[in-house]
Amino acid sequence: MPQENLCNDKVFNGFYLKYSRDLYNFMYYKSGDEDQAMDLVQEAFVKIFQNCGKIQMEKAKSYLFTTANNLFLNVVKHQKVKLAYAQQQPAAAGTAEDPQFVLQEKEYMEQLENAIADLTEAQREVFLMNRIDGKKYREIAELLDISEKAVEKRMMGALKKLRSRLENF
Q1: What pLDDT, on a 0 to 100 scale, did the predictor assign at position 3?
Q2: Which of 15, 83, 99, 152 has the lowest CB atom count within 10 Å?
Q3: Cα 110 to Cα 166: distance, rounded to the nearest angstrom
């Protein structure tokens, strides 16, 4: 009997039906937000389907839950960026802000969020771990189980993309 493959529509549909509710509950428990939990579940299954040929059936559940958890952690990191920026703003802004400054600031934040979102997952992960969490390249390399050179390369790529996207500001 041939081994089941997630690329087969029937197998994937069965896999989805079997684990989607458990994954939703797990994501809802982590996020506390029904809509966000559903979005994370859908995104995780999309990633599983995109990589279906690389995933062994016996490891598929673990891969699914790990993928969803990583997606959730990316959302949390993004929220940390927004929070850190929001906390810095009152001190830097002064008491009387002119409307033009407020508008430019809002546009810059939108550009920055879009630029960070456009980074590859690997670049975004390294960038946020370094710039928001304050981790050193060595710590990031250990956490991600990659070399320090790989961390440096990802960070260099992230910074290059961010500079090019934000050069007008």
Answers
A1: 60
A2: 99
A3: 11
Measured CA to CA, the distance from residue 41 to residue 64 in angstroms comes to: 9
Spacing of C-alpha 54 from chain mean position: 21
Tracing tokens 């949390």 back to the chain, one arrives at: 76
Instruction: Give the amino acid at 22.
Output: D
Q: Which of 74, 59, 60, 84 is nearest to 27 (CA)?
A: 74
pTM of the shown model: 0.48
Crossing angle (nearest 10°) for helices 148-165 and 99-118: 140
User: How far, in Å, CA of 143 to CA of 147, rounded?
Assistant: 10
Q: How far is residue 49's CA from residue 55's CA, in Å, rounded to a whole number? A: 9
Q: Would you state the structure tokens that stand for residue 60, as one six-digit string?
A: 């598929």
Closest CA to 64 of 29, 32, 17, 31: 17
